User: What shape does this take?
Amino acid sequence: MYSEWASLSTQISANSCGAQCFSVLNKFPASAGREVVISVVKQLGTNLGITQNAEPSHLVKDEEVKWCMDVICFGLSLPLQEHETIKDCVNVYCEWLTALHPQPRISVPKPICEDANLYARQIINHFHNLFVPRQGEILPFLYQSKLGSDTIKRQAVLCHRVLRTLQQTAQISQQMDRQTWDTLLLFLLAINEILLAPPTVKDDVGDQLCERVISVLFEVWLLACVRCFPSPSLWKTLQESCAMWRHRVALVDQWNRVNLALTARLLEFSYGPDFTQLKIADEDSQLIPAGMSNDCVAQTWYRFLRMIGNPTALCSPHLISKSSHFVQWALTHEKGAETHQHPCLQMLPQIFLNAIKGISSQVDAFLGLSKTALISLTRSSANAAAPTTPTSGPPSSSSINSLPSIGTEVRTTLSVARPKCNSILHLFGEWLFEAAHIGGDTWLQNRKRQACEASKRPSSMIMENRKGSISLSQPNSLNDPSSLPPTLTIDKYESGRAEAIGTLCKIFCAKKTGEEILPVYLARFYMALQQCLKITESKECDETLASILLHSADLFRLDLDGINVLLPGYIAALEIVLPDKDLKLKTQATAFNRTDLRRSAINILLSIMVLPLHYHNLPIRNLTSDSNEKPLTFIQLKARLMNILMNALQVETDAQNTHMLLGGLLLCVQDAVTFEECELSGNEHLSGQTGQNHEDNLLSSACSERSASLVSGTVSFGGQTPAMSSRDTASAHEYPSLTISDDISVDFTHDFESIASYDNAHALFVRATYLVCHRLISSWKTDLNVSLAALELLSGLARLHIRETDSLVKIVEPSQNLTIISTDALECKRAVKWICDYICYQCSRPPPAHSKDLHSTIVAAFQCTAAWLMQHPYLLQDKDCLQTVLEVVELGISGTKSQSKNGDLPKFKDEKELKPASMRVRDAAENLLTIILEQVGYFPSECGPESISSLLNELALIKHCTHPTGDGSVGVCNTEQAISKFKYFVTENSTILALLEEPLGNDQDPQPTITLLIRGPFGRHAWTMQLRHLPRSKSGIKYHAVNPGRPIPLNDITQRPECEQKNFPEGVDKVQPCVADYSIPTIEQIREQYGASIIGDLEAMLENQSIHEKLAWAESDNSMDSLSHAQECIPPAVCHEFHAARLFLSHFGFLNFEIRNPQNPNESLGAPPQRPLIVLDTTASAFAADLENLDKLSARTHDTVYVFYVKAGQTSASQIIGNMAEDQTYDSHFANMLQTLGWPVQVADHSGWTGFVHNSWSLKNTTESTDRNQSNVSNELSYNGAQHVLYWADVSAEIAFVVPNAWNMRYNSDIDSCSLSSNISDQSTASNVWMRGEDTGPLKSKPRNLSLELDTGSRNKEPIPPTRRKGTVSKPVLLAQAPTKIFLVWLESFEDYLNFPVEDLLAYARTGEELHSMQMPKAADCHVIFVHSLQSGLLRVKLLGPSGRMSFATPLVDGMVLSRRIVGNLVRQTALNISRRRRLDNDNYQPPHVRRRLKVQDIVQKYKMDLTEAELLAHLFHRSI
Assistant: This one.
C-alpha cells in the first residue's frame, strides 16, 4: 500500500538517540549541569501560578528563551531520582505549550507566543528526554531492577501529564502548521517505539503507559487526519511501528476501538440512516473529530484497518519476536533462550483472539447485526470478553419488523441494505480464511513445506528489513513446533480460529436471494469448514466446532452452490452435540451457552432433515478423498439423521429446543409417509429387502413394555449413538401398557434390526409414537408449551395413513379365544392409553398445582384423544380401550372415576358429587363424549365433511310434508309459517325439540309419525320416528282388507274328556285343620246364627232372578237385532289422526313428572321440582329470529388463513394484491401448494365456513345461479371467497383459505357500512351480539329455496366472556379479544419478509366478525407463515407472530426446510394449532357447544311458558296451527 514511499523510521531513531545531545550542559559534568538546572527551573516554576499567582515572564528575547530551554532540555534527562526537578521542567514546558492555544497563559514568554510553532517543535523534541531510558538503563528488565516501583510510578505520572498536554493542545489549537503536526506525530511514534517495542515486563513504565501512549497516538492521529492529513510516509511509518508492537495487548484493543468508531461513521454516510446503527460507547464515538469529512473517514478507516497487517502473523511467535529488542533479551538471558520464548509472547493467543474479534465485530456492523462496542478498551484487561448486546432497528407500524421472530429469544435480523458477501470478503476474507486454517491439516502441510524449503538453505543470519535489526534464530527453527513453549502451541490459538470460522459462517449466511458468491470464496470456505469439522478421537466439542454450529444455522437454507458436500461433516458434528445429555465443551477463552449451541444445532438439523428423501440416490462428493472411494448417497444419511433426532429428543431439557425437535419429528414422519405414498407405492421398502417375512416389522410395534424397554435400553439406532437413557427406561413400569402385550411372542433381535434402520415410514411412526408418549408422561408433563407441542405431534401422527405392513399378532384372551389384530392397532391402542394416563395424572395432581396452564394441557389431551379415535374408530371395538377412554371422560366431567381401582365397587352417577378439575376440562370431556357417541365411525356423513349437523330446517321439512288432505304444505313460504307447524320443547335446559306431527310425503304408511328437529349444544339433527307394531320388513304386506268375510264355521265336535273338577288338590282332607280354617263359617252355622227365615228370603231372590234372565234371553233371540240376525263385520276406518307428539314424549319418558320430595331443601321452600320438559311460545315475533341465530352458531371452531403471493422487491399492499389479477404470472409451485391446503369449493353450494360470516352455514342459492357463477370463474387461483374458496374440515374444526384480491377490499367496505348501520339500529336488542354478520340489504334479497344444506350460523373465532351455568343466564357481552389473523405468504425473495405490509393487508382480511370485538386486529397480533421456494425445489419457512407464551405452535418451526409434498398439510396443521393455542390462552374463550348451550338457555328465558302439569298435558292435545 505504501511500497513507493519512504519510511521515517530512521528519523524516529535519530530523534530518540540524539535527544540528550540537544543541551549544551551535556558538555559539563553532570553535577554542574544539575546545579544549573535546579536553580533555573526552580525560579521558572515559581512564576507558573502553581504555588502562587502567575506573573508575566521576564524572558523577552529569543536568546533568553533558548538558553532556558537548553537548561530545561538537560533537566528532562536527569536521573529519575531527581523527580522534583524533572517535574518542574515538565510543568514549565506544559505551560509554555499553551502558546498554541487561543488564549496562552500569562507566564508564557513573549518570544514563544510570537513564534509558537517553532518553539513548540523544540519543546516536543525535548520531551524525548523524559521517555528515553537513562544512561546505564538501556534495557527495561535492568531498568526495572535498579529502580524502585515508586520511582517508576512517578515517571509514569509525568509522562501522563505530557501526553495529556500534547493531546489537549492538538485538540484546541488552531495555529499548528504541518511541520508542527509532523513533529508531534513523529514524537508520539518515537515514545511508543521506546516504550512498546521492547518485550513486555510486568509493571515497568512501558507496561503502565502502554495503553495510554497508544490511545494518545491514535487519537492525535485522527485529529491530524482532519487538521493536516498525514503524509504517506507517516502512514507507512505508523504501519511499520505497529508491526513491532504486536506483542502488546493494548495495541490490538485500541486498534479495534478506533476501527469500530470509524466503521460506525462510515456506515452512516455509506448506507444512510435506515441502515442498522452500530452502537458503540459514548467515549469511543468521541474519538472521531466532528469536522471529519466523509471522504476523510473512508480514507482513514481503510488505512487504520490495514495498520497492523495480517492478524494471522500473531500465530507465529518467531515473526513477532524478530526485533532487536527480543534479540538483546535472548543474548542476555542467563540460561540462554530463543527470542520466541520470551514470557510476554504467551499473550499472543489472546491478542490473536482480540484481533479476530475486532474483525468479526466489523463484519457484524456491515451485516447490520448491531452490537455495542466489541471491547471497551479504556476499561478492558487482557482477558476482556466482548459484550454483544443485540439491538434492533427502528420499529415500523406498517412493517413486519415490529413482529419478533417466534421463539423465546429475539434473534437479530440482518439489514436489508447490507453489502454483498463478495464485498465483505474482499475486505476481510483473506485474513479470515487464513485464520480459519490455523492448526488445520492444510496449515500444517504449508508449515512443513516452508520448513523443508528453509532447511535447504544454509544457516545464516536473518536480516530484518527494518532498522537493520538482526535475529540469531536459525531458519529451520522458525517452523519447529517442538521449540515453542507449551503455552504457545498451535492449539492455544483455537479460540481465534473459532472466531474466524464463525465470522465466515455469518458472512455466507448473509447471502441474499439470487446473490452470487465468487466460486473461489465458496471453495475456500468449504475447505475451511471441512478442516474445522473434523472430529477428534476424543469426540469432544471444541470451540471451533461450537462456533461453526452457532453461526451456520442458515447455511443449508440459502441455495449455496455445492453446500451439500459438507453434509457428512455437519452430520458428524451434530452426532457429537445433540445426542449427548452432558455435552463436554473443550473451551479455552470463549464460553458457550450449551442451550444456545443445541438450539443452533437443531436449526441445522431441521434444515437438512428432508434432503435424503429429496435427493435420494444422488452421490455426495468428498472434497479431499480419492476418487476411488465410493461416494456416499443422500439416502444413506437418513438413518443417521433419524438417529440424531430421536436421541436429541430423549435428552433435551430446554423447552424451546424440545418444541423445535417435536416439529422436526412430525416433519420426518409426514415426509416419509407422503414419500412412500407418492413414489414408492407398490414397491418394497427403501432397503429393497424382498425376502423378509411379515414379521419383519413386528417388533416395531413396541407392543409390550418388555420390548419397549429393550428397544430403548439396548438398541443404538443406526449403530451410532446410544438410545434412550436409563432414566427413561427405568420409569417405564410406572405406566403399564396394554394387558395383551405379554402374550405376544416375537424374535426381538430380528425386529430390532428392522426398526433401527428406519427404512420405512411405519418404523419411524412407531418409534416416534412410543418416544413422545413416554417422555410426555415422564418428563414433559409439567411444561405447558412442550406438552402442547407433544400433543400436537401425536394428533398429527394420528392423522397419518401409514402404508399397511401386513403384520399380524396372535392374541390369546383369558377366555382362550384367538383374535388376530394388526400391529398398527396395537400401536394406536397404546398411544390412546398413554394419553389417557397423562390426563389422569394431570387431574390427580394436588390442588396447588392446578392452574390455567395445567388445565390447558388437559383440554389439549382430550382433543388429541378425539383425533386418535376419529382416525382409528376400530379402537372403540376393543373393550379395554373403550373402558379406558370412557373412564377418562367420566373423570373429566365429574372429577372422579366411578371405580378408582379394579376391585372397588363402582359408584353410580347419582351418588357422585360433580367436582371437575375446571369448567374447561368438563367442556372438553363433554365434547369428547359427544364425538364418541355421534361421530366416531360416522364422520364424514352423507353431507360431507363440511357439516356435522343436519342440513334440514323447519322450512325444508314442511315442504316435504303431506297434509291429510293430500295437497301438501300449501301456503308455507317462509320460516315463521313453517315454525308455526311445530311444537317446541326444551329438555335439560340445553336441547330444543321441534316436533312435527305431520308425516313426510315419502311415507304413505298410516303410522303414528313424528318428525324431530333437535337443536343441542353439538349441532342440529333431524329424525323421523314411527310407532310400529311390526318391523319394516313385514309391514309392506297389508294385513287388513276392506271386507275380510265371515269365516267358515267348524262343525266338528271335539271330544272333551270328562273329568271331575277339583277345587283343591288331592289329599287336602288329610291335612289337619287349623284355627284359620274355621274363620269362615259354614251355611249351617249362619242358619243357626241368623235364622232360617232370612236364608229362605235369600234363596227366593236368587230363584226370581234366574227366571227374569231366562225371559230376557228368549226375547232377544226373537228380535231382528239379535246375534243371529246381525250384519256382516265391517272393519273401522284407518285412523290418520294421532297425537304423535304426546306418544313420543310419553314413550321417551319426558312426561314423567317428579313427585315433590319434602327432603329436598329447594322444594321444602316451595320451589317446584325441575320439570323434564319446558314448552316454548312460538307465537312471539322474535322467536324465529332467535332460532335462526342459534343455527348461526357453529358446533365447530372455524378459522381463516389468508394467502398472499409476494414477488421480489414488492413492499406495498397494492402490489401484492395485484399479483392475484388474472393477467399476472406466478410460480407454478405456489398453485400446487394451494391445491394441497384444502378442497376447492363453490361458495354458492357450500354449507360450511367460507371465510365470511354472511354466507357461512346457511341455505344456498339455486342450481342455475350456481352454474352462472361457475361460468364466470376464469382464474384458477380465484379463491377470494366471492365464488370459490379453499376449505378443509374435521370433526372439530373448519378452516378456510382465502386468496384476497381487489374484490375483497370493495366487499369489506360494503359489509362494514351495512353492518355498522345494522348494529346502530339493533344495539338496544338483547341478542344483537348473536346476530353478527346477518344478511342485510342487498345481500339478503335472494330468496331461500329448498336445499338440504346446513343452515347453522356464524361463530366468533374468539370467545364471549363466560356466563357459566348459573341459575339465571346473563346476557352475553361483546368479544374481549380480536379474532386471530393468520397469513400464509409465498416469497420469491426471502428478504422481503422484513418489509411485508401486514397493517395494510389487514383491510383485505376481514370476515365480518371484527365489528363485534372490542378491539380491531393489529399487525402485532397477526401470525405470518412465510414460505420461500429454494432453487433445490425445497421450501424454507419463516414464522413471525406476537411474542407470547403460547404463540408458536408445531409442526412448522422457524427456519425449517420442507418438501413440496407436505407443505400444504403442515401449514394447515400449524394454522389449526396456532388457533387452538390462542383459544387455550384466552381466559374468556367458550367452546362452540358451550356457546350454543348458553344461547338455548337465553331462548328458554325469553320464550318459556309456565304451564302446570295439567296445562302441559292439554297443550299436547292441542294441534299446531
